[in-house]
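Exercise 7b. Backbone tokens:
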């Protein structure tokens, strides 16, 4: 199948590489010339675990190519996938649809023969209707269907999730379009459930899923706070809860709050859509408010353990919103650093194995940056672990003790063994357990 993908970000690029690996001819389209030139020269523009090998393989085979030309990517395509950003409005928090609308309007004139246009971006309910109207207005004679094809790729695990989907959801008001997409995903028909539903149902499934997972994360974080005060152990509690198959054991890991490009944006957009429809989603509203507050509370945890010394230094390990990605968008780690600065911290040195360049674009020279974890910890009065990178699980505690001025660790990802940390001579604080 010939496929055009509009957008080469954290959704479009892994999707394009995955579809090429399945044997399709994929053309990725992006207006940003520098990104396309980099991709054409064989350089990835994002970090995603496992992406580079498949990227190079499919570029070499000619199954995937990159262009700034909408005509080149769309005119011969059987399927055009829109995977552009839908950033939140700065005031209302609703999804900003200007990139979706621009893509739909531009692609319309290049449709040639029957084409399915799929929105893979997370979009408000009813967007498929809008896209259909825009295309029909620009090209009244076009033979096409618009479908919702929501993505369920976790950043850091996007390649794994592409080839091992929990489910594939197709929102189509046309049997012809549904059948085309069933053919596309035929390699997965014996591995997972392929669900064909109404277009508006599909658009809702994506928001409802992300909002539920965000609420589950916030719930376990609140339970962790309770456990600390009540003398319980959040991991024992989460294990007991997760054995109930009505609850399940996923998304029951306590931490500094949910973040990234999806959950914060999608919960806010879901709440906005509900208000527009005269519906109150009180659980989602409470999760949004509580999760925002949590970043401030986590920063105060770090501030509260600082010793009374001149110009105390805080070492920060982790800036990406999660391991496996270089993405710092709405990262809890970044928010905590910004809260630390707001609390008056003036001596912060950070290290992240993949996200340093992206973090610098946001934080600039407000903090210092180190080449490794031990350089960040050198002379520090507290070490704060904010992202769950595997490397941080295996820190040499003896070496840390030697380089730090004051041996205090605040582990907001619960990566370290409490007993080992204490035996190494550290004061230690973690989430959901009294230490």
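Sequence design result:
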């Amino acid at each position: 199948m010939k496929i055009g993908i509009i957008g080469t970000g954290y959704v479009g690029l892994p999707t394009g590489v995955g579809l090429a690996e399945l044997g399709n001819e994929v053309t990725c389209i992006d207006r940003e010339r520098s990104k396309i030139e980099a991709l054409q020269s064989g350089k990835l523009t994002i970090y995603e675990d496992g992406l580079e090998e498949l990227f190079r393989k499919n570029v070499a085979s000619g199954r995937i190519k990159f262009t700034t030309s909408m005509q080149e990517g769309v005119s011969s395509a059987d399927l055009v996938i829109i995977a552009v950003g839908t950033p939140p409005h700065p005031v209302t928090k609703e999804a900003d649809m200007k990139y979706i609308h621009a893509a739909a309007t531009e692609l319309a004139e290049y449709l040639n023969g029957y084409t399915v246009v799929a929105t893979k971006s997370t979009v408000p309910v009813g967007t498929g209707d809008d896209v259909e109207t825009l295309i029909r207005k620009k090209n009244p004679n076009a033979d096409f269907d618009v479908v919702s094809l929501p993505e369920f790729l976790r950043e850091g695990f996007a390649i794994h999730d592409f080839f091992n989907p929990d489910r594939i959801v197709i929102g189509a008001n046309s049997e012809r379009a549904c059948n085309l997409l069933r053919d596309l995903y035929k390699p997965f028909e014996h591995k997972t459930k392929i669900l064909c539903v109404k277009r508006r149902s599909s658009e809702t499934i994506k928001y409802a899923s992300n909002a539920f997972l965000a609420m589950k994360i916030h719930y376990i974080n609140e339970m962790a706070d309770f456990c600390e005060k009540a003398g319980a152990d959040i991991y024992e509690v989460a294990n007991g809860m997760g054995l109930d198959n009505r609850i399940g054991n996923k998304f029951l890991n306590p931490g500094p709050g949910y973040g990234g490009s999806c959950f914060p944006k999608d919960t806010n957009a879901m709440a906005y859509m509900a208000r527009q429809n005269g519906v109150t989603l009180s659980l989602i509203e409470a999760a949004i408010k509580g999760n925002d507050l949590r970043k401030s509370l986590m920063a105060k945890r770090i501030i509260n353990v600082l010793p009374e010394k001149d110009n105390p230094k805080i070492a920060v390990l982790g800036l990406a919103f999660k391991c496996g990605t270089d993405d710092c968008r709405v990262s809890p780690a970044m928010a905590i650093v910004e809260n630390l600065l707001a609390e008056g911290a003036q001596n912060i040195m950070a290290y992240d194995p993949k996200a340093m360049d992206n973090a610098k674009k946001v934080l600039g020279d407000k903090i210092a940056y180190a080449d490794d974890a031990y350089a960040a910890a050198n002379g520090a009065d507290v070490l704060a672990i904010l992202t769950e990178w595997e490397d941080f699980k295996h820190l040499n505690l003896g070496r840390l003790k030697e380089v730090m001025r004051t041996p205090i660790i605040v582990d907001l990802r619960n990566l370290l063994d409490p007993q080992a940390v204490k035996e190494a001579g550290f004061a230690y604080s973690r989430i959901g357990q009294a230490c």
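Instructor comment: The chain has a mean pLDDT of 95. The radius of gyration is 23 Å.
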